[in-house]
Design brief:
Blueprint lengths: L16 H4 L12 H13 L1 H12 L8 E4 L8 E4 L2 E2 L1 H12 L4 E6 L6 E5 H17 L7 E5 L4 H13 L2 E4 L6 H11 L3 E5 L2 E3 L2 E3 L1 H9 L7 E5 L13 E3 H6 L10 E2 L3 E7 L7 E6 H15 L7 E4 L6 H13 L3 E5 L10 H9 L3 E4 L1 H10 L14 E5 L5 H11 L5 E5 L33 E4 L12 E7 L9 E2 L3 H8 L7 E9 L5 E6 L3 E4 L2 E4 H9 L4 E11 L3 E10 L8 H11 L8 E4 L13 H8 L17 H11 L1
The structure holds 5'-O-[(S)-butoxy(hydroxy)phosphoryl]adenosine.
Amino acid sequence: MSTDHLKIKIISHPVPERLLDESKNPKPHIHSIERYKELYQESIANPTEFWGKHANEFLHWDKPFENVLSGGFEHGDVFWFKGGKLNASYNCVDRHAIKDPNKVAIIYEANEPGQHRSITYGQLFRDVCRFANVLKSHGLKKGDTVAIYMPMVPEAVVAFLACTRLGVIHSVVFAGFSSEALRNRIRDADSRFVITADEGRRGDKTIHIKKIVDAALKECPNVKRVFVFRRTGSEVPFDSSRDLWWHEEIEKQRPYCPPEIMDSEDPLFLLYTSGSTGKPKGILHTVAGYLLGTAVTFKYVFDYHEGDVYGCMADIGWITGHSYIVYGPLINGATTVLFESTPIYPTPSRYWETVEKHKITQFYTAPTAIRLLRKYGREYVDGRDLSSLRVIGSVGEPIQPEAWDWYNEVVGRNECAVIDTYWQTETGSIIVTPFPGATVTKPGSATLPSFGIDLAILDPITGKELEETEVEGVLAIRQPWPSMARTIYNDHGLYLKTYFQHYKNYYFTGDSVGRDADGYYWIRGRVDDVINVSGHRLSTAEIEAALIIHPSVAEAAVIGIHDDITGQSVHAFATLKQLQESVDVKELSLQVSKGIGSFASPRKIYIVKDLPKTRSGKIMRRILRKIVSGESDQLGDLSTLSDPSSIPILIETVKNS
Ligand code: WT7
């Protein structure tokens, strides 16, 4: 494969001097590239020793583990820290509450500016215990699953931790998903309880959370109880035979609940994510490995030091929120910011006001937010005191050099480490990233592997490992790492097929990648039918499935098209059933909002006569992408099409819509 496009001049950025000045800042944990290399080598050559040591340093064990790693990729029977016993909520809360109950655990920056409150570890401990006792009093026990559908309020974190205190598996559903999407996730995980709120507030919008839950539960007969946290206090429907108010329930419970002692490999949580099939997959993470992976990367990748105030702007409904708002920071006893609002509410200065107000030291967001704020202009950043910042991070999709430069100069004032962190729901924690005190960065590259991550680039067709330095291929991993997903809930076969059978003896990420002469990794994007809109992972098959439910639609094809702000946007093609002359495209769009959520709704829908197909009937999305991107003159080889004469009509239809 050609690597010519790698040859464009990229300016490298050394570690900012300010970070290495010990009179001004704490000495970075990984303070030189040599130190990084030394630790990395150790983690790859001797993973057992490396992770065994870290497991004892970062986690409290009720019973020590006997063995660090067993099993492998072939059977998907990886297990870490065999025989070890521990509890996640004890590790996240109790030990810090015992040491320093007054230390702030969570700074809740509510939607309305000026409304913020701090929750100490002591208070978090009592809240978690109380709510765990509530769950227990209603019969929840180890191994049950609970759906959490909540806005960005501290009680959501309390709900996570109360579940893990009892060994209850939480399945968090992002509160932007529709009632149908919520219903499917509740049913798939067989959740018997739902934890939710009356309403949510985001920017100037109200999200009718309880109503959405009620609609979902019409088809979830197994759900016996719904706990409702009062966020806005508005009047909401309430079924007193099923629903319970959070505030009334916790009043009844004492603020101590003994933690359930869990096995290292017991499930911690489920989180649904999209893949190439029409059905979301319940990714399962286990207690010890996940906690260790998030804890170690949190400390080293964000260079966390005692006294720092760390702020991740993601939503707790996605893996970023799980790993880097909740678990990673809390295992380390850090102060973590919970941001309920949007980057532009009430003005595009909101992030920077928040940084200034709470003196945030590490700030973590997504390229889509950076691009949006860059568009509004630097006047919204300038004038804010951002001098507390040391590390500014990005996650979710490749960050373009222009956005990287803006982030570095305007937000970081060339004095912060910019860390482009690459990872996935399935990896549990960051796997390719710079280290603030060590790595020379290049805008657009996630740089080098994190500890214990043994990367390989494979030829996508032959599966052969490409051993030279400068190559392009697909990204795979050679060895297990602690925070990798252990299975897909109720479908281990699909787990093996998706991640381990494309390329034998490797974990397959689904992303294509390039490696430059310095060994730096450049993530290019998905090679499967997954598209990335504002850092949200969407499956084309899932959107197509939602469209096809419409009575007029015969077939649908969905593609991702480049967008300057959201990265990609959804474009959909549909053919209509016989005798059907036209359809209101708004109805089709609604179909997607109903089936998944409005964030997945197509930007554009084209009603066409035919879809381009191979002779074996496979839709050629590549052709649709070219046509929509205005590259109809570069359609390439059309000889495999069953009906090449349909193409000019297709081009015309797209042009006129
Ligand atoms: C997919 C995973 C993990 C947190 C958020 C997304 C893309 C993620 C980067 C990055 C280039 C990235 C990949 C990956 N991705 N971070 N820094 N550079 N691409 O989690 O929803 O599981 O999506 O997001 O394509 O496979 P997710």
